[in-house]
Amino acid sequence: MATATTRLRCLLLLFLVQLLLLLSAAAGARWQDFLRLPSEGGDAAAGTRWAVLIAGSNGYYNYRHQADVCHAYQIMKKGGLKDENIIVFMYDDIASSPDNPRPGVIINHPSGGDVYAGVPKDYTGEDVTVNNFLAVLLGNRSAVSGGSGKVVASGPGDHVFVYYSDHGGPGVLGMPSGDYLYAKDLVGALERKHDAGGYRSLVFYLEACESGSIFEGLLPEGINVYATTAANAEESSWGTYCPGDDQGPPPEFDTCLGDLYSVAWMEDSDVHNLRTESLKQQYEVVKDRTSAHGTYSLGSHVMQYGDQSLNGQSLYQFIGTDPANDNATFGRDNSLRRRSSGTVNQRDADLVYFWQKYKKSAEGTPEKAEARKRLLQVMSRRSRVDSSMELIGSLLFGSDEGPKVLGAVRPAGQPLADDWDCLKAMVHAYEAQCGPLKQYGMKHMRSFANICNAGVGEDAMAKVASQACAAAR
Ligand SMILES: *[C@@H]1O[C@H](CO)[C@@H](O)[C@H](O)[C@H]1NC(C)=O
Ligand SMILES: *[C@@H]1O[C@H](CO)[C@@H](O)[C@H](O)[C@H]1NC(C)=O
């Protein structure tokens, strides 16, 4: 039986080879043009597909970022990417968190299944850092510390997809350990990757508050990078499937399950034959959902940056397609016009968690007292950061001008700062006096950039920060 099948296969193969030889002779082409190894991806233009997926936060109240990234992994995997070409960064403190009502499981939709199973743990815990992320992106194995050592070892014919889900602020993205990722360094790495012949084209999907500021005025055209962001340069992005929403999580979850822009691109990718859907078509679907169908109430402006000429490329080139969706062709009217679910401004999503904890614990218990304490701590920490920045503005520019200088927004197309080393130095000067900005404090990055743009030096900053924070202590 087995031999018969084998013989049949051999005959078929022989027939195919003859046919190919005939065809190539006719067209004057080489057999290599016809015969491709399966590992080469199946269509001539594809090269190898690589993906870098990163959640830049930790903590159960940030459940959604790691849930997003796990979900993205499942899409890549079903799309046909191989584990050796998918690199995942996640702190990995969610599935086994004592707060997780479903131990060992992560979901990204109120009625969704587990997205955690099978996710490779390339870079977890303290290995989720700016240095490792950039080294992985650049394919520089010797610059990586810890983790699996997997890097994007891509070549000039390859396609690279990067997805980042996190908190951010003007010009920065968060990391659970170490320094922030500054826009200038990220864009610089993309340019270097391009110059080194590291890809044919690269798509970057970015979920974070003020995520437009990462590329605005910084990402050049002509390096075959196409980026979309959850928000423009000056607004927050939105968490979704949050407690209290009309489409909230199961009641035992005290945290948001996803982010609006992120679930918009992923739930669209989950159900379509991605050979038939272009980057531009997905952008339109995601923009519609993320803007709450164009109302922008509880929603944000999805933006496009870089080489718009890539708009027409199919998603398949970058993230493959799930064979189960082969008949689900993308079309305008079959696209997911899902009801807008409730959302929470990303920056307030941790408050929702602490509030839920407080609300749910029984009156008079130590849990209630503890939850109340944590909520108040978070709120007072926020107001301390805000008032220290306000005071710094007044000390530097006077109480009338201070708020205007710090709050100034540059016209679209201009980067946040001219001198990014100055921005970093300002942030360090502040943090040395006042403590870390952390995920909430990142919202003040524009103020630091404006202080630099106004020509204030590092020493002057250190001096007023010390005054301002001594007053706040
Ligand atoms: C890789 O990283 C190492 C260590 O940071 C650095 O010395 C080296 O120049 C990098 N290689 C490339 C090709 O950028
Ligand atoms: C697609 O449709 C064809 C024809 O109806 C069918 O044979 C095939 O099984 C379908 N494929 C999937 C993945 O549903």
Write the layout of secondary structure elements.
Elements: H1 2-27, E1 49-55, H2 63-79, E2 86-89, H3 130-138, E3 159-165, E4 168-169, E5 172-173, E6 181-182, H4 183-195, E7 201-207, H5 212-215, E8 225-229, E9 238-240, E10 258-259, H6 260-271, H7 279-290, E11 303-306, H8 316-319, E12 343-345, H9 349-360, H10 366-397, H11 401-407, H12 420-434, H13 438-441, H14 445-453, H15 458-472
One 2-acetamido-2-deoxy-beta-D-glucopyranose binds near residues 140 and 143.
Structure description:
With 473 residues, the protein is α/β, with parallel strands linked by helices. The chain has two domains: 40-344, Rossmann fold, CATH 3.40.50; 361-472, Topoisomerase I, Chain A, domain 4. It is 40% helix and 10% strand. The protein has helices at 2-27, 63-79, 130-138, 183-195, 212-215, 260-271, 279-290, 316-319, 349-360, 366-397, 401-407, 420-434, 438-441, 445-453, 458-472, and strands at 49-55, 86-89, 159-165, 168-169, 172-173, 181-182, 201-207, 225-229, 238-240, 258-259, 303-306, 343-345. The chain has a six-stranded mixed β-sheet with strand order 2-1-3-7-8-11, with helices on both faces. A three-stranded antiparallel β-sheet has the order 4-5-6. Strands 10-9-12 form a three-stranded antiparallel β-sheet. Helix 2 runs parallel beside helix 6 and helix 10 packs across helix 15 (458-472). The protein is globular, with a radius of gyration of 24 Å. Residues 1-44 and 332-337 have low confidence and may be disordered. The protein binds 2-acetamido-2-deoxy-beta-D-glucopyranose (NAG) (2 copies). One 2-acetamido-2-deoxy-beta-D-glucopyranose (NAG) binds at residues 324, 326-327. Residues 324, 326-327 line the site of one 2-acetamido-2-deoxy-beta-D-glucopyranose (NAG). One of its GO terms (molecular function) is cysteine-type endopeptidase activity. The active site is at 167, 209 (nucleophile). Belongs to the peptidase C13 family. Residues 1-28 form the signal peptide. It comes from Setaria italica.
